[in-house]
C-alpha cells in the first residue's frame, strides 16, 4: 500500500515538473518574440526588400547614325542615366568628319565624342563633308619623331606615320601608313614638328597645336594630349584683324624642350629651367638669331618646379642685348594645367596682347 502511494506521488511530482518546464518555455518564447520580430524585420529591410527607386534601373536608348561619307559606332545601344558614353566616327575615302548633331543642334566637333547619358533617349547624327579635290604635288614637309606633316601649296594639311599621342591630328591615336587629311576646311601656311608635338599657322595667322602635351608644351594651359589641331590662346591669340589691331603670327619653331611663337614685333619664348639657367638649345637659338631679334620684344615664359628664373632672364639679355626683354613669366610645374589665365594677363601687362 505504501509502495503504491509512493509511486502515485512520484508520477504526480513528475507531471508537475514537466508542466512547470513547458510553462516556463512558453513564457520565455513569448518574451523573445518581439526581439526576434525586430531582428527579422531589420534583415528584410536591409537585404530583402526591393528598391522602390527604380531610376537607377532605367535604361535609355542611344541611336547613332551617320551621313554619307563615313560611319559612326557606339559600344552599347542602351545606357543608364549618368553612364559614360563614347561614340566614334571613321571618315570614308575622300571625306572628313564635320560634327555631331543631336536633334539638329551641334554638340561636338570631336570625332571621338565623350558624354554622360541623359535621362531620356538620345539620337546622335555624325556628319561628314567631301574633301576639296584641289591638290598639289608641291609640299612643305615637317618631320617629327617617326611621323610626317605635309603642307601643299594650296594650304591643305595631311599627315602619316606614328600617332601614339595624336600628333597626326586626325582625332585618333591610330598609326597611318598613308597620308590622311587634317582639318581640311582650314588652309595653313606653316607647319612644324617637335618630337611628338605638332604646330601650324593658318592663313589668318591663328596658331594651332596638337599631339604630345607633356610639361604643357602645346601652350593650351593644360598637360592633356590633343588629338586634333587646337587653337592656342583663344580669345587672346594673335590674329590678323585690322592694321594696328591684334597681332599676326609670322613664324613658329619648336624643339623637344621648348617652343617659339613669332609675330611681327617679337616672339614668345617658352623653355624649361636647366640647372638654374635657360635651356641650352634655347640659348643656342637666341645666339644664332640675335641680329634678327634686334629691336623686337622677347616675351619669356619659363617652367620650373622650384628654382627661380632670374638667371634665365640674364641669359636672354646677354645673348640679345639689343632686344626688348620685359619681366619674364615663371610657371611652376604644379600650375601648368591652370596657367591659361595667368599667361593671358601677363601678355596684356607686357603689351603683347593689345
Classify the secondary structure makeup into a structural class: alpha+beta
Shape: elongated
Q: Residue ranges: pLDDT <50 for 5 or more in a row?
A: 238-258
Q: Profile the largest sheet.
A: 6 strands, mixed
Order of helices and strands: HEEEEEEEEEEEEEEEEEEEEHEHEH
As a percent range, the share of helical residues equals 10-25%
Total DSSP E strands = 22
Give the C-alpha Rg: 36 Å
Strand content: 35-45%
Mean pLDDT: 76
What is the terminal-to-terminal distance?
131 Å
The total count of helices amounts to 4
Task: List the topology elements.
Blueprint (H helix, E strand, L loop, with lengths): L1 H47 L10 E8 L3 E5 L3 E3 L3 E8 L3 E8 L2 E4 L3 E5 L5 E9 L8 E5 L3 E6 L4 E5 L14 E7 L5 E7 L2 E6 L4 E5 L14 E6 L17 E6 L4 E5 L2 E9 L2 E2 L1 H9 L8 E8 L5 H10 L9 E4 L7 H10 L5
Parallel strand pairs: 1-8, 19-21, 21-22
Antiparallel strand pairs: 1-3, 2-4, 4-7, 5-6, 5-8, 9-10, 10-11, 11-12, 13-14, 14-15, 15-16, 17-18, 18-19, 19-20
Short account of what is shown:
This protein is an alpha+beta fold and 354 residues long. It has 4 helices and 22 strands.
Amino acid at each position: 500500500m505504501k509502495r503504491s502511494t509512493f509511486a502515485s506521488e512520484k508520477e504526480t511530482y513528475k507531471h508537475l515538473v514537466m508542466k512547470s518546464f513547458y510553462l516556463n518555455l512558453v513564457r520565455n518564447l513569448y518574451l523573445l518574440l518581439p526581439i526576434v520580430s525586430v531582428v527579422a524585420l531589420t534583415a528584410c529591410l536591409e537585404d530583402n526588400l526591393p528598391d522602390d527607386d527604380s531610376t537607377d534601373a532605367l535604361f535609355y536608348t542611344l541611336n547613332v547614325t551617320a551621313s554619307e561619307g563615313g560611319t559612326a559606332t557606339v559600344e552599347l545601344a542602351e545606357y543608364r542615366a549618368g553612364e559614360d558614353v563614347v561614340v566614334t566616327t571613321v571618315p570614308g575615302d575622300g571625306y572628313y568628319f564635320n560634327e555631331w548633331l543631336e536633334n539638329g543642334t551641334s554638340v561636338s566637333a570631336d570625332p571621338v565624342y565623350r558624354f554622360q547619358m541623359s535621362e531620356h533617349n538620345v539620337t546622335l547624327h555624325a556628319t561628314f563633308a567631301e574633301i576639296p579635290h584641289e591638290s598639289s604635288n608641291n609640299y612643305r614637309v615637317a618631320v617629327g619623331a617617326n611621323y610626317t606633316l605635309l603642307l601643299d601649296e594650296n594650304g591643305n594639311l595631311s599627315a602619316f606615320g606614328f600617332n601614339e599621342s595624336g600628333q597626326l591630328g586626325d582625332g585618333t591615336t591610330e598609326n597611318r601608313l598613308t597620308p590622311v587629311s587634317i582639318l581640311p576646311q582650314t588652309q595653313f601656311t606653316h607647319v612644324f614638328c617637335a618630337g611628338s608635338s605638332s604646330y601650324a599657322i593658318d592663313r589668318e595667322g591663328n596658331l594651332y597645336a596638337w599631339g604630345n602635351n607633356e610639361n604643357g608644351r602645346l601652350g593650351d594651359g593644360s598637360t592633356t594630349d590633343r588629338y586634333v589641331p587646337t587653337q592656342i590662346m583663344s580669345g587672346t591669340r594673335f590674329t590678323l584683324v585690322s592694321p594696328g589691331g591684334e597681332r599676326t603670327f609670322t613664324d613658329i619653331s619648336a624643339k623637344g624642350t621648348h617652343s617659339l611663337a613669332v609675330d611681327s614685333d617679337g616672339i614668345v619664348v617658352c623653355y624649361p629651367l636647366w640647372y638654374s639657367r635657360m635651356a641650352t638649345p634655347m640659348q643656342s637659338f637666341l645666339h644664332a638669331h640675335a641680329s634678327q631679334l634686334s629691336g623686337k620684344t622677347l616675351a619669356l615664359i619659363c617652367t620650373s618646379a622650384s628654382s627661380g628664373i632670374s638667371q634665365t632672364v640674364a641669359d636672354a639679355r646677354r645673348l640679345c642685348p639689343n632686344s626688348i626683354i620685359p619681366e619674364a613669366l615663371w610657371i611652376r610645374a604644379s600650375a601648368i594645367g591652370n596657367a591659361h589665365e595667368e599667361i593671358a594677363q601677363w601678355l596684356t601687362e607686357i603689351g603683347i596682347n593689345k
